[in-house]
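Z., the sequence and structure:
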Amino acid sequence: MNNDLTLKGYNYHLPENAIAQHPTDKRDNSKLLVLQTGANRITHQRFSDITRLIKPEDMLVVNNTRVFPARLLGQKETGGKAEIFLLNFPATDGGENKTPTATALIKSSKKPKPGSVITVNKSLSCTVLDLLDGGKAQLQINFDHNLGLAETLQQAGQVPLPPYINRKNGCTSEDVIRYQTVYAKETGAVAAPTAGLHFTGELLGKIERQGTRVGYITLHVGYGTFAPVRVEKITEHRIHKEYINIPEETVRK
């Protein structure tokens, strides 16, 4: 066990060729590392083999969060470029103001001032309401109500792929499909729960047919999964909060 609580104590070399830039043709054909705790032995299998590892008396709990296009490329009123990373799916505050707002990170040559507008396209713009700590900003999301908020973001935004996935021209149509679990339902994550990307509908059906219970929870994966650790003592690293919901139906299972 590593008792070193400094950041340098966790440094290791990860060759670039060990990071897959594209998924396997079939989701469940990816590699699966299995640790047999009783024998203290590691074996390398395929993800589709998980049906032999999960028993009928087990319960499989999966995260049904859905990734939304949180990365927006826009233009400031001055003509300068701005990149917006939405930290949460835009929502109203429940009061009189029905225009949705969101907390975001903004990357630009000069920090936009409150009241300034960043235009993404003809259907979407963001008004800076306030500048917050940590380089964050509170934005008002102005969108085409004929399209709806979700569809406007779908057309204007990009899926925020992890920084270790290299795409020169942004995410592809394949990324939009594959960087989402097959059971994604509740929109709100800025990153996919990656372990679940390897399940297929057929594989889940096979697991249920063998008697294993499958339960769903919602945990919206947040920006903290991307955020670098900038402190030397890892216990001082502040982790972003994330929304979680465990339905009563899942608890009863």
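Helices lie at 50-53, 149-156, 173-178, 201-209, 248-252. The chain has five helices and 13 strands.

Let me know what you think.
H.
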